[in-house]
Amino acid sequence: MGIAREVFGDALPIAERYAEFLADAGVERGLIGPREVDRLWDRHLINCAVVAEAIPENARVVDIGTGAGLPGIVLAIVRPDLSITLLEPLLRRTNFLNEAVELLGLENVEVRRGRAEEVVKEFSMDVATARAVAPLERLVRWALPLLRPGGELLAMKGERAAAEIEEAAPVLKRFGVRTTELLQVGQGKVEPPTTLVRVVAEREPRPAKGSKKRSS
């Protein structure tokens, strides 16, 4: 909990309430596996919180396929300056998210039920985040149309991150992205550090023609 206190600071009590909610209602409703309860802090909460290191101040953030609110709710807790939209297509999950937001008193969070391709005309965000949603080549198609020109996708990835960048090269070229790079955040706080693929949009992106992919 020493690291948790360092990461969350004065917001640690809110993070603790969220952890309790995940361990209770999250497990009961199938959003978190029972085996994950003992690993909630290092594998989920702190692992997500350190993503905030890569997000600029006062950014508008959409968390795609947020599920139980990871990383979106965690980012809202640790960074109250951010405006977070939790985008999730499944009703049972959005019900959970609305309950969590109310329980935690998060005034900087909006829960939106829907898929990325359904809300593309409504969004022009600074940052899109995603964790365990889809391979990068699919995630790019969903995320970049939700961003303003120059906005960033921050995708939480594992050991295949570099390979996914290579596999997504044709899609990245089609969208005319400015840069694609690997970042590691949370050095000294989580082991291994959290790996992010950062994709910066160059111009107003458009979804692939005829794309009907799902966002979760």
From TrEMBL:
Under Gene Ontology molecular function, one entry of this record is: rRNA (guanine-N7-)-methyltransferase activity
Stored Gene3D superfamilies: Vaccinia Virus protein VP39 (3.40.50.150)
Q: Which superkingdom, per the lineage? A: Bacteria
Q: Keywords assigned by UniProt?
A: Cytoplasm, Methyltransferase, rRNA processing, S-adenosyl-L-methionine, Transferase
Binding sites annotated in the UniProt record for S-adenosyl-L-methionine? G65, L70, A116, E117, R131
Subcellular location(s) per record: Cytoplasm
Q: What is its EC number?
A: 2.1.1.-
Q: What Gene Ontology terms describe where this protein resides (cellular component)?
A: cytosol
**In which family does this protein belong, per the annotation?**
Belongs to the methyltransferase superfamily. RNA methyltransferase RsmG family.
Q: What does this protein do?
A: Specifically methylates the N7 position of a guanine in 16S rRNA.
NCBIfam families, per the entry:
rsmG_gidB
**Entry protein name:** Ribosomal RNA small subunit methyltransferase G
Q: What's the source species for this entry?
A: Actinomadura harenae
